[in-house]
């Protein structure tokens, strides 16, 4: 189990799986994994406090939501060479690296084959109730592994596929319920061939073991026994490895360690 340099040892209540295969979402294309308790409540609050205290220019205001990009935005699909701040690195990245893909003796972690062997970019999105994001793909700038840590509240992520004529099927093929403090990992075909989005609604409905792909892996499925989730403000941390890095950002990195 990884140590948390930012906030002390990994809390005793956090028990990571020995391998991602243990927490794989069955019934989905290759491949998705879900850990309901990836960080503690104390770690969650500490990260939220850091997000809230970031300098105002760090926030990019879109039409209905706002976001932060660390260590910087991409320029022509390249990332300026700069480290992530400590509070975004620890404890999350060491924990990601500590989990093997499978129980095979030579198995390694989810980022072992990526260009930098760990995430180098974090997108922080704030979703107020009623606000989502259109179905989309993350694009070719990133290695095809996305690790999303959810903070503050639960909501449903929808996975979409295209019809035979190439048009997007407006009905999600799968729904994944992301609880606060959870980790969702999506890889391979699920990253490259399918779209994901969040509906602009204030309440997720029709929640059950028959409609939610990760129902059996939820921390508290009883919280959704009535089939609904009234949304509150949810913040997501999206960890990815940008494949191309520009060394021109070296000096800029000194300013962004804070």
From TrEMBL:
Coiled coil start-end: none
Keywords carried by this UniProt record: Dioxygenase, Iron, Metal-binding, Nucleus, Oxidoreductase
Domain spans labelled Fe2OG dioxygenase: 118-243
GO molecular function terms attached to this record: dioxygenase activity; metal ion binding
Subcellular location field: Nucleus
Domain of life: Eukaryota
Family: Belongs to the alkB family.
Protein name per the record: Fe2OG dioxygenase domain-containing protein
Organism: Daldinia eschscholtzii
């Amino acid at each position: 189990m990884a140590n948390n340099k930012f906030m002390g040892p990994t809390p005793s209540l956090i028990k990571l799986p020995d391998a991602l295969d243990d927490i794989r979402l069955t019934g989905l294309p290759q491949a998705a994994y879900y850990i309901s308790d990836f960080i503690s409540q104390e770690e969650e609050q500490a990260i939220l406090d850091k997000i809230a205290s970031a300098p105002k220019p760090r926030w990019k205001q879109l039409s209905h939501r706002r976001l932060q990009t660390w260590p910087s935005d991409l320029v022509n699909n390249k990332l300026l060479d700069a480290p992530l701040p400590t509070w975004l690195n620890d404890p999350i990245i060491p924990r990601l690296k500590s989990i093997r893909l499978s129980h095979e003796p030579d198995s390694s972690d989810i980022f072992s084959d990526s260009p930098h062997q760990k995430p180098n970019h974090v997108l922080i999105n704030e979703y107020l109730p009623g606000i989502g994001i259109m179905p989309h793909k993350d694009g070719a700038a990133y290695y095809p592994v996305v690790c999303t840590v959810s903070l503050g509240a639960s909501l449903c992520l929808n996975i979409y596929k295209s019809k035979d004529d190439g048009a997007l099927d407006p009905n999600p093929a799968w729904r994944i319920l992301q609880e606060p403090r959870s980790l969702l990992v999506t890889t391979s075909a699920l990253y490259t061939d399918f779209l994901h989005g969040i509906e602009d609604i204030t309440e997720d409905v029709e929640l059950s073991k028959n409609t939610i792909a990760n129902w059996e892996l939820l921390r508290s499925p009883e919280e959704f026994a009535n089939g609904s989730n009234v949304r509150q403000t949810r913040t997501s941390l999206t960890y990815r490895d940008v494949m191309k890095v520009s060394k021109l950002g070296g000096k800029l990195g000194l300013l962004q360690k804070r």
